[in-house]
């Protein structure tokens, strides 16, 4: 398998906070010439199970995946599970717990919005009526629809982001536990978009060391929105910590024209692609 293969190992569907259904995403990937595609919805594999039914006919090789929310030193971290078994008992139980945690958190956020004089109960009903797991992205969209904010970004800036009146800390499971769930499902753990975390250089190195110790295998070297300096830095981290390299658009919606599905740079030659093991 060569690096000329069109690969996208980080995408989202309407089963979490993406716009397209799993079938629509697979067909769009096929139209973009993507040959190896991972669906990595937040804390659910429901999209994988749907996509498996249409991927072969579309000429797309599907990588069963998931993006799991974790906590490391009070910092929210996202870990991709690639080539997982979606039917893994430990993983299924863990994702069920994640779904329950998300639902409780959403209810608490909406309670805080009500305390601020906003229609929290109505917003919660709007979020719960959407397909997929509830996320703050869904809530921001509901606030936009209700005319509470002019843009989705304003919902995070005024109400939902860290330090705002309605923010509720996530309190996700620790990083080592999340990596363990992925390994138990026969998968490969890849640290998602490592340049996005607000960490000092020393803290980032400690994160990577802890991730590697927990059994992490890969690092997302190229992801949607990464500038050239981020790619070089991520490649250096992967090389320095003996991690394989992954690439993924983190695609959510065709409306995000700045982040198209599968339009990704070539990996630097000094890192080993995680899909080479296929």
Q: What can you tell me about this protein's structure?
A:
The protein has two domains: 7-94 and 175-277, TIM Barrel; 104-160, no CATH class. A seven-stranded mixed beta sheet has the order 1-2-3-4-5-6-7. With 278 residues, it is of the alpha/beta class. The protein is built from ten helices and seven strands.
Short description:
This protein is α/β, with parallel strands linked by helices and 278 residues long. It is built from ten helices and seven strands.
Q: Which labels suit this protein?
A:
about 280 residues; alpha/beta; TIM Barrel; 2 domains; seven-stranded mixed sheet; 10 helices; about 40% helix
Rg, Cα atoms, Å? 18 Å
State the helicity in percent bands: 40-55%
Gross morphology is: globular
CATH architecture call of the largest domain: Alpha-Beta Barrel
Q: How many beta-strand segments?
A: 7
Uncertain regions spanning at least 5 consecutive residues: none
* Helical segment count: 10
The description of the largest β-sheet is: 7 strands, mixed
CATH homologous superfamily label of the largest domain: Metal-dependent hydrolases
CATH top level class name of the largest domain? Alpha Beta
The SSE string, one letter per element, is: EHEHHEEHHHHHEHEHE
Q: What is the straight-line distance between the termini?
A: 8 Å
Number of domains: 2
Order of strands across the biggest sheet? Answer: 1-2-3-4-5-6-7
| Mean pLDDT level | 94
Proportion of strand residues: 5-15%
What is the CATH fold-level name of the largest domain?
A: TIM Barrel
Q: How would you classify the helix and strand content by structural class?
A: alpha/beta
